[in-house]
Amino acid sequence: xxxxxxxxxxxxxxxxxxxxxxxxxxxxxxxxxxxxxxxxxxxxxxxxxxxxxxxxxxxxxxxxxxxxxxxxxxxxxxxxxxxxxxxxxxxxxxxxxxxxxxxxxxxxxxxxxxxxxxxxxxxxxxxxxxxxxxxxxxxxxxxxxxxxxxxxxxxxxxxxxxxxxxxxxxxxxxxxxxxxxxxxxxxxxxxxxxxxxxxxxxxxxxxxxxxxxxxxxxxxxxxxxxxxxxxxxxxxxxxxxxxxxxxxx
Amino acid sequence: xxxxxxxxxxxxxxxxxxxxxxxxxxxxxxxxxxxxxxxxxxxxxxxxxxxxxxxxxxxxxxxxxxx
Lengths: 249, 67
Description:
- The complex is a heterodimer of chains A (about 250) and B (about 70).
- Chain A has about 250 residues and is mainly α.
- Chain A has one domain (about 1-249).
- Chain A is built from eight helices and no strands.
- In chain A, helix 1 runs parallel beside helix 4, helix 1 packs across helix 7 and helix 3 runs parallel beside helix 8.
- The longest helix of chain A is centred in the first third of the chain and has 30 residues, at about 1-30.
- The mean pLDDT of chain A is about 85.
- Chain B has one domain.
- Chain B is an all-alpha fold and about 70 residues long.
- The interface between A and B is medium-sized, with 36 and 33 residues.
């Protein structure tokens, strides 16, 4: 159960971030048809992330479990509540939905307005740096989620496998269609990831701080269900609030 | 100096996000859990109560602001 939940949570979180990074790399490559520079930037970004994993991975697994759980559980809970909060605001109409097609058009316009300056082996420095930054910034979240889940479950390889699988699937899909993956239900996926991060954060943070959950490990599915129901209920309440405000105007 | 500020701003935004109150509530809930775990009182409920209280509060703060 926990291994499956770990794989699903990391896969979904990484897929969402990979969709966002792919949109940026596609825009960088499309603007001046600088695919080589955009892919070099993406490759350099992946290289930086690999170094981060190589340095942080062994360090995180070397820390005693209780020390990890209270810190990582707390961080995951804060991080998960951010995701869940934004997902509820989007689903209830209080925040604009994440729109990959619009983001692609914005990035494309910005890239097209720039000059394709050559630096060293890179033909288009703008495309290179745009891709690099996109991959590193979105990838840092992937690394954080994979390492925290993996270290807590004593299964960093499974978390890494889920992360790599998500990135590969999304990258193949993105470059097959050469367009932003706007059909991916990103907003729903972000809601699910927010629920998972919040639930695991509550469970591990509580255990790390010395709490004993009723039913021990079997409390985790109940926490996931409770957080999901709570999130859906808050969304419904806020959506009703939007409807009442609109009808009053 | 500007680079250092940008570095810390990135990590603050990455970890804490839009509402620092949620992060503070989580830290306080973990501290209460630890304190309760040193007594005979069950400690597991402190974090769910914090989430059930602070998530709606944080959402309410955003939605009451004029858009």
